[in-house]
Amino acid sequence: MSEYTTGELAKLAQVSVRTIQYYDKKNLLKPSQIFENGKRIYTDNDLNKLKLIILLKNLGLSLKSISEILESQNSMKVMNLLLEQQLNGLRAQLKTSKEQIKTIEGLRRDLPQIDQIEIKDIGDIENIMKNKKSLRKVHIKMIIIGILMDFVEIGTLVWAIMKGNWVPFIIGMILVLLIAAWISRFYYQNTNYICPNCNTEFKPKFWAAFWGIHNSRARKLVCPACGQKNYCVEVYDEKRELAR
């Protein structure tokens, strides 16, 4: 069996000499042999015991608790119960961390992509999230209506081809055009835009918004406040909701 001095044991366990001396003082880890000159000798058993102490310490146990476990007659049973509790605790922390990560990712995804927006407190974040949810409802309503329009258009076209009667198709197309006009107006009334240059929220002219180049989050518009033409970020028109 190998023998180690205090320094050698500390190096093997990757702890300081002072730590081992402290454990010795607390009667937690006594050397296997002590010479008259005070030199302490530790064995492989002592090294394994030290590694166990370090493990339990890292799990959050106090030195008093570790001492009671090591001195217990049912130390293995106590260890198994302890490790099971620690494992359950870590799993709970992991679940919480995953939920927090999901929340943060959702927040980052939903925040407007404008650096000038100032967030002073949690209320500002809540308002931004509420605005995004309202805007998402507008988009969902438009998608649903768009699907119904496609159904009417395709359905009446198939009917016309199969039956040779084009009247339903013509009526359907008129209906689709009317719905398209309504949905365009609905979208315009419920959306505003924020200028990335001066941070002004504004509602553009209908045709400027209608013909403006756009992507899923922004539309290229001229800001009425600073006069610059930029991709302005789309937001929900909260003033319209308050006016109802």
TrEMBL record:
Tell me the domain of life.
Bacteria
On whether Chloroplast is a keyword of this UniProt record, the answer is: no
Task: Locate the coiled-coil region(s) and give their ranges.
Answer: 80-107
Q: Which UniProt keywords apply?
A: Coiled coil, DNA-binding, Membrane, Transmembrane, Transmembrane helix
Q: What InterPro entries does the record tag this protein with? A: DNA-bd_dom_put_sf, MerR-type_HTH_dom, MerR_fam
The residue ranges crossing the membrane are 138-160, 166-183
Residue ranges occupied by any HTH merR-type domain in the UniProt entry: 3-72
Which GO terms of the molecular function aspect are on file?
A: DNA binding; DNA-binding transcription factor activity
Q: Where is the signal peptide?
A: none
Which PANTHER family does the UniProt record give?
Answer: CHROMOSOME-ANCHORING PROTEIN RACA, REDOX-CYCLING DRUG-SENSING TRANSCRIPTIONAL ACTIVATOR SOXR
Name of the protein this chain belongs to: Transcriptional regulator
Native species? Companilactobacillus nantensis DSM 16982
